[in-house]
Amino acid sequence: MPEKYTIGLDYGTNSVRALIVNVAHGREVGTAVWNYEHGTAGVILSRDPNLARQHPADYIKGAEITIKKALVDAKTNTRGFKPEQVIGIGVDTTGSTPLPVDRAGQPLAFDKKFAKNPAAMAWLWKDHTGVAEAAEITGLAKKIRPQYLAKCGGVYSSEWFFSKILHCLRTAPEVFNSAHSWVELADYVPAALTGTEPPDQFVAGVCAAGHKAMWNANWNGYPDAAFLSQLDPKLGRLRSRLTARVHSIDRAVGGLTGAWARKTGLKAGIPVAVGAFDAHLGAVGSGVAPGALVKIIGTSTCDIAISPNHQSLADIPGLCGIVDGSVLPGYFGLEAGQSAVGDIFNWWVHYVQPGGKKPLSHADLDKAAAKLQAGESGLLALDWNNGNRTILADQRLTGLLVGQTLYTSPVEIYRALVEATAFGALTIINRFEEYGVKIDQVINCGGIAEKSPLTMQIYADVTGRPMKISRSAQTCALGAAIAGAWVGGAYRDFASAQKAMTGLKPRIYRPDPKAHLVYRELYALYKILHDAFGTRDWSGNLHSVMKQLIDVRNRVRR
Amino acid sequence: MPEKYTIGLDYGTNSVRALIVNVAHGREVGTAVWNYEHGTAGVILSRDPNLARQHPADYIKGAEITIKKALVDAKTNTRGFKPEQVIGIGVDTTGSTPLPVDRAGQPLAFDKKFAKNPAAMAWLWKDHTGVAEAAEITGLAKKIRPQYLAKCGGVYSSEWFFSKILHCLRTAPEVFNSAHSWVELADYVPAALTGTEPPDQFVAGVCAAGHKAMWNANWNGYPDAAFLSQLDPKLGRLRSRLTARVHSIDRAVGGLTGAWARKTGLKAGIPVAVGAFDAHLGAVGSGVAPGALVKIIGTSTCDIAISPNHQSLADIPGLCGIVDGSVLPGYFGLEAGQSAVGDIFNWWVHYVQPGGKKPLSHADLDKAAAKLQAGESGLLALDWNNGNRTILADQRLTGLLVGQTLYTSPVEIYRALVEATAFGALTIINRFEEYGVKIDQVINCGGIAEKSPLTMQIYADVTGRPMKISRSAQTCALGAAIAGAWVGGAYRDFASAQKAMTGLKPRIYRPDPKAHLVYRELYALYKILHDAFGTRDWSGNLHSVMKQLIDVRNRVRR
After folding, report:
1. β-strand pairing of A252-255 with A86-93
2. How far apart are CA B413 and CA B369, in angstroms?
3. Amino acid A292: pLDDT
4. Which parts of A161-302 fold into alpha helices (H)?
């Protein structure tokens, strides 16, 4: 019997990747990456530093180019490989990255009239133009629909679906009025590959809808029209034009169109799975399972766990999102994260540039910091240089370093920053467990997990738990390929597909008991700082210090 | 009538300086510096990082060389200058720098038997070998003589007279037992120049005795014998061999001996004033007066004010010392200080070395930081990298930086460190005023006051007060020379001598009202951090965080 393969299409911020894997064991046989050609490294910018858009043409062109190249790559690597052996496709994307579409489901940006209008493009996840609208949505929900916020960490973000759409309505009404509907990138790509139309027939992933658009089966889908109308009557009317077909990744959106089959060399009709966000499919590709926490560690982290949906689960304060089926069918998908990890180390290396004439690189610092013992520096830091996503859900928090003397070295500070992110990671694990989501194992993936043994060892020592590393370096694309394998019929159940196709690296970082004891003491001190500066539980007014500094800064800079 | 001159002899940590000034207006006509020849840059070190000693031979040789060279320099600079025109000498030294002496007042180190014994040398101010003894003295005084501590900031320091002597008694009994007495360097030099002996006839400066040896006229001089005996009976017996002649700098110790006159070319018999510490005579040389605060700003600061001794003055909590006559006769000398100022900036420049391949120098940072506005960085720091001398009197406090983001630059951090020292300076000014010592003007001197306009402007902006700079760059030696002028009979009263011989630089740094308003806000936040981390007033347990970090560090390093 010939081998079977699937394709994972992974849409990142600057590029798209196609990954072809063998469905029997998940090994990668071919891959290709294509950098978006619009804007700066794929991102359309403007004078407004909050604006970040993408041209949807890059998504279509990118799929064609990377699929074709990955097939060539697979043929080169694997004797006898044939494109017809590809039995399914899965898609993961950034998000929330909504785009306005016309009645046929075509991006407005494809219309000449809007070809250069940034509001008609895809509103990239990191577009923050909707800050005011996010505050408005949060304020209204707090007042009249608190249940909407309980599942998304208590605050509706400027990065999310309705903040962006409402901002478009307010600032680019010509675009809003011309849009028949809005779709997430994660839903647009599968629809395009399968020729689905009109947009209210698109199949939306519950991952995007649930985590970013307050969709929940318990309240009949998206926020009710009355709520949306109170923000703006036009937004209320949009609701009925959003697709009601919302599913987990274990469903197929449809079959690959003949046109796409001809363009790429794939078989027409092979199923395309419902799309989801990169982190969620990254968790799938890392082997997320009940009791496992998957940490995707890069510039920031996304921490994903799941919990069986037949058991009741409390709203967990501070979590970014709790959505039934957003990671795996049959489970609540629980999303947490740290606003900065690698970005904090990058700040130290690239902004402060310590070390004199031979500035210290990440590698230098990793090596030197590994020689220090836990607690030896007398330093303690908070990992809030970019705010705190979980468990405080407060972007207006900032970094803190304490304990420096006249002899504190840049290596010691670097290690303290790594330790700070480990304490932040432990705080997230503890929060899961406090609310009944037991974490039996921690699986890491992403650049830092692969490249920094120092970080992984410190995470093990701080948490007192072994740190495992996902075998694949492309867990997001692999997760998408697993969804493709399931909808392609290669397995009887989703869990078997995932189990067969994922794995761990042989090296596991195990906690050093002596270091762990020291870190238990330091974590108690971290928690004192965390609560004093990050919560109002504290009786003093330290909780306002960071915010007042930001207020002063903004006033002075204005 | 021919001009009259005096000499100020200024004994620093690494070198001694002689300065010849014209008594009419204080202008400097000749100077010479000689680097001590023993040890490393004049300091005898050992494996114990706490040990720092000096060889007394350097003091004697240094006086001879620098006086002779300064006289040559004066002859070169000033037509008709003759050594006979020198009418008096004043002496300032580091301290507490006690040394053991024999029955004739000669340093034990001059005895062959002890020529290489570090315990027989002068115990330099920064020798910290007596940490345990300092704690013992503090503990006993707290229990049975709290009044002793009330005048010296509540804690008896390891840097001070009795800590060092008790440590010698415990660890080098052969030296202690051979010593007839112990004298401060500030008292030894005038005794040597005037041939005073035996040591119990030395005239001790009230500056050293009062600030470092708990001497106070109110309790009949040094701590009572019962107290000292409880520390060690031998220490109790030493008390009667310490000189009872303790005076302000307005007295002459005696006249220059014939031998010294022949060695130097000065007139025999010219009066030598009672010695005092560098900072105190620095304040005199800067023009300290009622209502003036003199800040001597270098690696750390010494902040000196005076208050009329006919008015009652409360014990001011946290001040390092309050001693009647220690600066000027007729006034309480009030000493405060910051444990690190320039040292914190040096830490950033030399230990962290930020800025990449072209590391940022002090000058680079000063220039770039001057372009930033108050509050613009969003940063706030505590100036405690070397502990806090005033007002918390707690060496186990450490640095803190808060507000950093992913874009915080090394220049912004540098400015935040400068601002932190300014907030520390303001806290000292406020403490003086809270206890009725009104500060009408602030006069700065020392390296940073001269070299860093950024620092001076920020001090003005933070405190809302003009920052004046002392005219002389050698205020300590100038202060000694003023004492020499007074004992030499050039003036009818001390204040007139000081007024005539001191002055200010023309440039005064005036507060920018806009910046001051911002800094008022930031200072309120600084005080929140200060009180939370530095005092027990705070209801949380933040006050223990820095200390616990130090405890962990010490335990791990051991």
Report:
1. unpaired
2. 9
3. 98
4. 161-171, 173-178, 185-194, 206-212, 225-231, 233-238, 258-264, 278-286
Q: Which amino acid is at B217?
A: A
Between CA B538 and CA B528 the distance in angstroms is 9
How many beta carbons lie within 10 A of that of residue B226, not counting itself? 11
Decide: A336 and A320 in contact? Cβ < 8 Å. Answer: yes
**DSSP conformational letter for A351:** I
Concatenated DSSP letters for B180-208?
Answer: SEEEEHHHHHHHHHHT--SGGGPPEEHHH
Summarised one tens digit per residue, pLDDT across range A446-473 is 999 999 999 999 999 999 999 999 999 9
* Average pLDDT across chain B, whole number: 95
- Whole-model pTM over 0.95: no
Look at residue A528 in the predicted model and tell me its pLDDT.
Answer: 94
Phi and psi at residue B256, in whole multiples of 5°?
Answer: -60, 135
Q: How far A371 CA sits from the closest chain B CA (Å)?
A: 13
Instruction: Tell me how many residue pairs between chain A and chain B have CB atoms under 8 A apart.
Output: 198
How many of the other CB atoms lie within 10 Å of CB of A503? 15
* Residue type (1 letter), A347: W
Which tokens is A380 given? Answer: 């303690």
pLDDT computed for residue A536 by the predictor: 83
Indicate whether B539 pLDDT > 70. no
Most A-contacting residue of B405, B421, B537 (CB-CB within 10 A), to test interface = B405
Q: Shortest CB distance from A529 goes to which of B358, B380, B545? A: B545
Confidence band for A556, pLDDT divided at 50, 70 and 90: confident
Report whether A467 contacts A426 (CB < 8 A): no
Dist. CA A18–CA A10, nearest whole Å = 6
Residue ranges in B473-544 assigned as alpha helix (H): 475-487, 494-501, 513-534
Total residue count of chain A as it appears in this document:
558
Rounded CA separation A500/A66 (Å): 25
Tens of pLDDT, residue by residue over B154-210, are: 889 999 999 999 999 999 999 999 999 999 999 999 999 999 999 999 999 999 999
Q: Count of residues for chain B?
A: 558
Strand partners, A334: A305, A322
Mean pLDDT of all residues in A27-52: 94
Three-state SS at B218: helix
ipTM of the predicted structure? 0.91
DSSP type of residue A82: -
Question: Is the separation of the CB atoms in A494 and A306 below 8 Å?
Answer: no
**Among A residues 348-367, those touching chain B with beta carbons less than 8 Å apart:** 351-359
